[in-house]
Write a structure and sequence with these properties.
heterodimer, A: mainly alpha, two-stranded antiparallel ribbon, 10 helices, about 5% strand, B: alpha/beta, Rossmann fold, Alpha-Beta Plaits, 2 domains, six-stranded mixed beta sheet, four-stranded antiparallel beta sheet
Chain lengths: ~260, ~300
């Protein structure tokens, strides 16, 4: 199934192509991760927390703001990577024929896909780094441990980038991304222990939450920013890596079927 | 002469239907080779197999003596491809398109920049180097795609309808550039719908239809073989003319309102026809590749 000769360092060339494009729009791109967490903290942390008091999580009582801040980073990682390999990659593949042009060069399709996923993870890293600066300065993230959020954003970005790429391989038209977003990403966004601990979920729903990669990413983000989590660090990291590998392999198959005729 | 491309009994099927059906041809170093045929004849499918975009179903396909399915990287590093669609990168400027593409070939930066400058100069795009691709006219975009396909100094250039959709000025400009390239000894495979283009550029060509090769030869040779030297077109032919043709066993195509007579070698039919059968309008002209093409592939509409 997997042809090792199709993998080489050349994927970095495609990654670099995306970087060149990003350099033209970064001034706009970095505003979202800069201001979004501030909006959330203002809305949920200050406005909402008065209604809630403290959250019991991982054997500790946390303020609501302290509870959601790491999850905000985790969701930003998810959105950045997922949007990049869905809408971003789909536009490049389908409308701009960028992949067609690349496939007339010594690049392999596998390298193009890997590059897109790694690029999406890089965007997650950029977003996480900006958020970390803001949230670190505000004292919501413990430093220097919080710096581990940077490599974590990369691993999480790979996982969400890979599943996004898989959807890009199978989706017929760009409008239909609504479907995986509605059926998969939105429930994950809400029920991954992001805005409330999953112990508040009915018992039958909890195993589903445990299967969400965002749950593990949020767990790890809490472990690295406030030193508390409910799931083993190794388990969560392992889950994200397996998730990434699994959907990367699936997206090779889907994209081959789609592009190579 | 060294064979750059060797194709033997090449087959490509889609869902059991053969788009390319047992075709064989070769292209020698330095040749300008044409692949002609109506829409859906299998040209683009063949071309895509050539540059490794789509895998073949059966048959032999060797480029530079290597197998494209296993040595695609080595082969692709030595070929340039100008696809039918505009595959320029709209997120990048004109010059960046060349620089980034050079990266895909792992060309060192200094060399890539120098090469880009030369190519922009050659294709008269220097003044547009910082423009966005979407701001280019059709002709300029086509020239940029050509420039991009030459970034790796390919030994083999594959052109899939390089002038489709261009106005006559832009088309002639592309032809001039291609002729200049030909001087450098590069090998070219081209598909086109413009017979004038094929006649002017190709040393040798094949006409394909329904996935099969119909004929193979130089443009002049094919014209001689299939359309004679001269053609008389007679508008509004009458029964007497048709009987006259049949009696003398002349080759002709009856298009109802118009009759096309292929003048046999050594006969001067022009006067006879004009005096005896020309009711409306008669044209006496040299045969062209277009006549050959239409004779061989028929005049029925495709698609």
């Amino acid at each position: 199934m997997i042809d090792l000769a199709a993998f080489s360092w050349r994927f970095l060339k495609v990654w670099k192509r995306n970087l060149v494009v990003y350099q033209r729009i970064w001034k706009v791109s970095f505003l979202t991760p800069l201001f979004e967490p501030l909006f959330y903290i203002l809305a949920f942390g200050l406005g909402f927390s008065g209604l809630i008091g403290s959250v019991h999580y991982g054997g500790a009582d946390l303020s609501y703001t302290a509870f959601i801040v790491p999850a905000l980073i985790a969701t930003a990682v998810m959105w950045n990577a997922f949007f990049e390999t869905t809408y971003g990659s789909f536009v490049r593949m389908y409308y701009q024929k960028t992949f067609d042009a690349m496939m007339a060069t010594p690049l392999s399709l596998e390298e193009i896909i890997i590059a897109e996923i790694v690029w999406s993870a890089s965007k997650s890293v950029a977003a996480a780094a900006i958020m970390l600066t803001v949230l670190g300065l505000l004292g919501f993230v413990q430093l220097p441990m919080g710096l581990l959020l940077i490599p974590l954003a990369f691993v999480g970005g790979l996982a969400f980038g890979a599943i996004g790429m898989f959807f890009t391989g199978i989706i017929p038209t760009i409008d239909m991304f609504n479907l995986p977003i509605f059926l998969f990403v939105t429930p994950m966004f809400l029920f991954s222990g992001t805005f409330f601990p999953i112990s508040n979920l009915p018992g039958w729903m909890q195993p589903f939450a445990l299967a969400f990669p965002l749950y593990h990413l949020a767990e790890l983000a809490r472990r690295f920013s406030i030193g508390t989590s409910e799931t083993g660090t190794i388990i969560s990291i392992g889950y994200l890596i397996v998730f990434f590998l699994f959907f990367t392999v699936l997206s090779f198959g889907a994209m081959k079927k789609r592009l190579i005729q | 002469m060294e064979n750059i491309i060797e194709i033997q009994n090449l087959v490509k099927t889609f869902d059991g239907i053969a788009a390319v059906n047992e075709i064989s041809f070769f292209v020698q170093r330095g040749e300008f080779f044409g692949l002609l045929g109506p829409n859906g004849a299998g040209k683009t499918t063949t071309i895509r197999m050539l540059y490794g975009f789509s895998p073949r179903t059966r048959g032999k396909l060797r480029i530079f003596g290597m197998d494209i399915s296993t040595e695609y990287r080595k082969i692709k590093a030595r070929i340039g491809v100008c696809q039918q669609d505009n595959t320029l990168d709209p997120d990048l400027t004109v010059e960046q398109n060349l620089h980034v593409f050079a990266e895909y070939f792992a060309i060192p930066k200094k060399e890539a920049f120098e090469r880009s400058r030369e190519l922009l100069e050659f294709f008269a795009l220097n003044h547009k180097k910082d423009a966005k691709v979407l701001e280019l006219s059709g002709g300029m975009a086509r020239r940029l795609i050509l420039a991009r396909s030459l970034i790796n100094k390919p030994e083999l250039l594959i052109l899939d309808e390089p002038t489709t959709g261009l106005d006559p000025q832009a088309r002639h400009q592309v032809w001039e550039k291609l002729e200049e390239l030909k001087e450098t000894g590069i090998t070219v495979v081209i598909t086109t719908h413009y017979m004038e283009e094929a006649s002017r550029l190709c040393d040798r060509l094949v006409i394909v239809d329904h996935g099969k090769i119909l004929v193979d030869g130089s443009p002049e040779d094919l014209i001689d073989r299939y359309a004679g030297r001269h053609i008389i077109e007679i508008e509004g032919p009458d029964q007497a003319l048709i009987e006259y043709m049949k009696k003398h066993d002349f080759e002709y195509d009856d298009l109802d309102r118009r009759l096309i007579l292929y003048e046999p070698e050594g006969r001067d039919l022009n006067h006879t026809i004009r005096e005896r059968f020309c009711n409306e309008k008669c044209i006496y002209r040299n045969s062209t590749l277009e006549d050959v093409f239409l004779r061989l592939t028929g005049r029925g509409l495709r698609e």
